[in-house]
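1st attempt posting a full record on here, be nice pls
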Amino acid sequence: MNIWFTNPDEILKKTTLVSRFLEYVKIDTEANPESTSFPSTKSQLEFGRKLLADLKALGLSDATMDENGYVFARYPGRVKGPCVGLLAHMDTAPDFTGKDVRPQIHENYGGGILRLKNGVVLNPAEDRHLPQCVGHTLITTDGTTLLGADDKAGVAELFALVEFLNQHPDIPIPPLSIGFTPDEEIGRGADRFDINRFGADIAYTVDIQFPGEINIETFCADTATLTFTGIAIHPGNAKGKMVNALRYAAKILERLPENERPETTDEREGYYNPSHISGNGAQAKLVIFLRDFAKKGLKKRGDFIRKLVSDVLKGEPRLRIHLAIIPRYRNMANVLKKRPEIARKAEESVRRAGLTPVFRPIRGGTDGANLTAKGLPTINLFSGSVNAHGPTEWVSTKAMGYAVCTLLNLLQLWGSDRGQ
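the predicted structure (as tokens):
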């Protein structure tokens, strides 16, 4: 018999969800996009070893971690059904420091402005989610780091799920495969993911988003890397001779459309996002993220960058620019529309938790996009965290409890004929 879970406070009382989350966010697992190792930082391997030990402590004796840092475990099914995969990522984004995280707990949030260090402010007039969390316990940064709820909220929630299942052997669930991935934040989370070893038939990532949100669409994404080679010479004798590579990188940046930036677009609007620039007058490197929900739109963006390069070279024939446009991931909706039951059960599990399902496109990437392309259809469910990648990141403990309620309902739906 199915037992539908609607009370996040029950989850918070019966599991170590919050204390585990507070422990995990203090561990620095920042990914490094410049690294050629896998995972990109040793700290992720260290965190993986801790997660492995913690899984075994909960009775998952077959839990393993491979040489690439992927941590997998199986939870035996109690009823027949497909093996459901649940995933969260271990790393934090390199956009803002994740070292020496000092989480701040704000009990019984009253709905006002929260002032943190460094002038960081959480203002309900600017953050549409804060007014929905009056009375909740919020966890924020201290203003000097990101929080790491992206995605250690998801990690802690999967552990809480296992704890709760251990306490309630009567909950009818199908076989479950749990996975923790490295380097999701730099787009490599699925690169060495062994789908056969993971053993799931379908999967869900549990990663950011407010309670009720479900993601079955992502951007199509490419990365444009431009390497500029100029002519270096002493500036005192530079007239007619110097070709400053940095100056021409700036010319490319100047010509990117003002109304097609991340900060000027929303919903399904694509963008050009300069990620980083480095170098000197002799040689410089510029990386631009290209994003669009449609493949045709993404191709147009690549063609636009090629045209910019051509135009700049016409103005200075002594300059050399090497352009490489590298595919990153594609909109997972193109595949998932063939498996509508995966989203349908997610929607029903959210309703069963007493929440309103909201389908939103992800204005970014997810392990699910590349896993879906590899043959493991994977959508994203909310973990509850807000404002990822920066010092205004926060999460409600009640939202985290709702995430676990939703997962408990989801597993039961896959283990029965309900929710079809």
